[in-house]
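Entry for the shared binder. Reason: the reviewer on the internal report wants the predicted structure included alongside the sequence.
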Amino acid sequence: MRTSPTAPPTPADRDQPPYDPGSYEPRIHDTAVDVEANKIGRVVDFVGSRVWLRPIGGGLEWNARPEDLRPVTTAETLSKDVAAANARSRGECP
């Protein structure tokens, strides 16, 4: 089953405070959703006014505007971590 970055909230997500657009300031190692590109990645660098992210399971980095990022929900984090672990078990990534 594939979960999109705009998945409905789960019971675990309901325990988190509501997200206020524009209030999120990404930091290195944060896991964030790029709402413009519809991708989830880990923040790896800041260059100028752009934030660089890398997909959770590895792959090509991309950059985004900070205002296009939001923190991931608990469900999104678990889904991506499980997908990355499954890919590793199949030998698809290191």
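Summary line for the report: The longest strand covers residues 39-47.
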